[in-house]
Design goal:
By secondary structure, the chain is an alpha/beta fold. It has 19 helices and 24 strands. Strands 1, 2, 3, 5, 13, 14 and 15 form a 7-stranded mixed β-sheet that branches. Strands 18-19-17-16-22-23-24 form a 7-stranded mixed β-sheet.
C-alpha cells in the first residue's frame, strides 16, 4: 500500500493528514497559531509559525500511524492564498507575511489601475485589482518599507514557503499563483507585460508548475527531521479552494461546489477560460492541468446564521447543551416550522458588505417585510433563505458567462444542514450532493501527490477512484416556483437601497 501526505496551511492553523492510496485517512494532526493585527485593517502571520506547525503535524501523523517512511510516496501542500512572503538571498524571512484578509493596500490598488488600467488587468489576470491579493501587497512594501524590499531576493506564497523549506526549491503552481495578480491566467505563466509595467523583477518569482507536477524532493535535512525518506516527491499542490475542489471531485465541466462557512463560496470548474469583465466573480487556473475555475463569494453566509444564533437563540443554545446536540440542529427544526418565503419576510445577508454580485463594501444586512405577525422561526428561515438567494446570485453570474452548473456538491459547516442543502437544491434547480470525506483541501492535495507519484494517471482518474458520494438531495418540484417568486423580489431590494447604503456609510 502506498501513502501520501496532505498539508493544509490555513489561517487559524495547519492540518496534516496521512492518506492511503484509496484516499482513506490513516492519521491526522492540527497545530494552531496566531494572527497579528498591528493596526486596524492589517492582518499578518509569522511564516515561522507555519513552518513549525508543518513540521510538528507531519511528525505527529507519522508517529501516530506506524506507517513506514519508505511507504510514503509524496507530499502535497494546500494553503491560504494571496499571502506575501519575502525572503533575502539566503532564504531568510524579511518580515511577517501580509495575509489574504489584510486591507491596507487601497492606494496600491489605485496605483495598479493607473499604471496598468483596469481592463488590461482583467484581460491578463482575469480579475480587477484587489486589496487582498498579492501584487498590491508587494507594491505596499516597496512604497512603505523600501529598505526591506531592497533586500528581497524571493517572493513566495504561504504554501510555497513551506515547499522551499521541504525541497530548497523556489516554486509555485498555477492555482495559487492566479491570486497574485501577476500571472497571465489564460496562458498559465507570469505576465512579462504586467511585471514590466509594475517594475517587479521576474527573477523574484518562483517557477510556475501545474498543480500535480513534481516541483522538488525532500532534502536530507528535512527528511531526517520529519521521519521521511530523502527524495520523497513534493508536488505543486494548490490554493485552498482549488484544493477543496479536487477533494470534492469538482474536476469536470458541469461540476461545482458550494461552501457555507463564515463566508459562502460557489465554485465551478471549466475547461475553457471564462472571465467576467465586470469583476463580480474570480477566475483562476484550476488544479487540473489545462482547466480553470470561476468562484463567486458572498461575505456573510454562515456568519449571518451565527449572528442570529448568538443574539436571538440563547434558549436554543441552552436546550441544545442539555440535550447534548448542536444548537444548529434545533435551529434547523425551527426553520422547518416556517413556510417557504418565511411568511413574506426577506433577508439580505450583507452584514460585512458584499462581493458577488454587487462589489459593495457599504451594503448592509436587511430584514424586508417585517411585521407583527412574524416569529423567531420566520426570521430564522428568512436568514437561511437570504443566504441561499445570495449564493444563487453567484450561480446566475456563472450562467451569464455560459457556465453550466448541473452537478453541485455542498460542504462547509452550513453544508451539513439538510434544510440548507434542500434550499440550495430547490434554488439551483439541480441535485446537491455531499461527499464522504470531510478533509477537503488536505485530500485534494493528497490526490495531486498520488498523480505526481504515478499511482494515478490523471487528476480526474484519481478523483473517480477516491471521492465517494455520501448522499444526494434532489430539488422538490413544487418548491421551485415558490422560491422563484421570492428570489425575484429579493433581487429588486439591493438596487432600491444601494444609494441609501452609501449615505448610511457616510454618516
Amino acid at each position: 500500500m502506498a501513502y501520501v501526505i496532505g498539508v493544509d496551511c490555513g489561517t487559524s492553523g495547519t492540518k496534516t493528514v496521512l492518506f492511503d492510496e484509496r484516499g482513506r485517512v490513516v492519521a491526522s494532526h492540527t497545530v494552531e497559531y496566531p494572527m497579528y493585527q498591528p493596526q486596524n485593517g492589517y492582518a499578518e502571520q509569522d511564516p515561522a509559525d507555519w513552518a513549525n506547525a508543518m513540521t510538528a503535524t507531519i511528525q505527529a501523523v507519522m508517529q501516530k500511524s506506524g506507517v513506514k517512511k519508505e511507504e510514503v510516496r509524496g507530499i502535497g501542500i494546500s494553503g491560504q492564498m494571496h499571502g506575501l512572503v519575502l525572503l533575502d538571498k539566503d532564504g531568510r524571512v524579511l518580515r511577517r507575511s501580509i495575509i489574504w484578509c489584510d486591507q491596507r493596500t487601497a492606494a496600491e490598488v489605485e496605483e495598479m489601475n493607473r499604471t496598468v488600467g483596469r481592463d488590461k488587468l482583467v484581460s491578463v489576470t482575469a480579475n480587477p485589482a484587489l486589496t487582498g491579493w498579492t501584487a498590491a501587497k508587494i507594491l505596499w512594501v516597496r512604497n512603505h518599507e523600501p529598505e526591506i524590499y531592497e533586500k528581497a531576493a524571493h517572493i513566495l506564497l504561504p504554501k510555497d514557503y513551506l515547499r522551499y523549506l521541504l525541497t530548497g526549491e523556489y516554486a509555485t503552481e498555477v492555482s495559487d499563483a492566479s491570486g497574485m495578480q501577476l500571472l497571465d491566467v489564460p496562458h498559465r505563466c507570469w505576465s512579462d507585460e504586467l511585471l514590466s509595467a509594475l517594475q517587479i523583477d521576474k527573477a523574484l518569482l518562483g517557477r510556475v508548475y501545474e498543480s500535480c507536477e513534481v516541483t522538488g524532493t525532500l532534502t536530507r535535512e528535512m527528511a531526517d527531521r520529519l521521519g521521511l525518506c530523502e527524495g520523497t516527491i513534493v508536488v505543486g499542490g494548490a490554493g485552498d479552494n482549488a484544493a477543496a475542489a479536487v477533494g470534492t471531485g469538482v474536476v469536470r465541466d458541469g461540476k461545482a461546489f458550494t461552501t457555507i462557512g463564515t463566508s459562502g463560496v460557489v465554485f465551478a470548474h471549466t475547461s475553457r477560460i471564462s472571465i467576467d469583465r465586470m469583476g463580480r466573480v474570480h477566475t483562476c487556473c484550476a488544479a487540473v492541468p489545462g482547466a480553470w475555475h470561476v468562484m463567486g463569494v458572498t461575505q456573510g453566509a454562515g456568519l449571518s446564521l451565527k449572528w442570529f444564533r448568538d443574539n436571538f437563540c440563547i434558549a436554543e443554545m441552552e436546550t441544545a447543551a442539555m440535550m447534548d446536540v448542536d444548537p444548529y440542529y434545533l435551529m434547523d427544526k425551527a426553520a422547518l416550522e416556517s413556510p417557504i418565503g418565511a411568511n413574506k419576510l426577506l433577508y439580505l445577508p450583507y452584514l460585512m458588505g458584499e462581493r458577488t454580485p454587487h462589489l459593495d463594501p457599504d451594503a448592509r444586512g436587511v430584514f424586508f417585510g417585517l411585521s407583527a405577525m412574524h416569529e423567531k422561526r420566520d426570521l430564522l428561515r428568512a436568514v437561511m433563505e437570504g443566504v441561499t438567494y445570495s449564493l444563487r446570485d453567484c450561480v446566475e453570474v456563472f450562467r451569464e458567462m455560459g457556465l453550466s452548473v448541473s452537478d453541485m456538491a455542498a460542504c462547509g459547516g452550513g453544508g451539513s444542514s439538510p434544510v440548507w442543502r434542500q434550499m440550495l437544491a430547490d434554488l439551483y434547480n439541480c441535485p446537491v450532493t455531499t461527499v464522504e470525506s470531510k478533509e477537503g483541501p488536505a485530500l485534494g492535495v493528497a490526490i495531486l501527490a498520488l498523480v505526481g507519484a504515478g499511482i494515478y494517471g490523471s487528476v480526474s482518474e484519481a478523483c473517480d477512484a477516491i471521492v465517494r458520494t455520501a448522499g444526494v438531495q434532489a430539488p422538490v418540484e413544487e418548491h421551485i416556483p415558490e422560491y422563484e417568486k421570492y428570489y425575484g423580489l429579493y433581487r429588486e431590494i439591493y438596487p432600491a437601497l444601494k444609494e441609501s447604503f452609501g449615505k448610511l456609510a457616510a454618516l
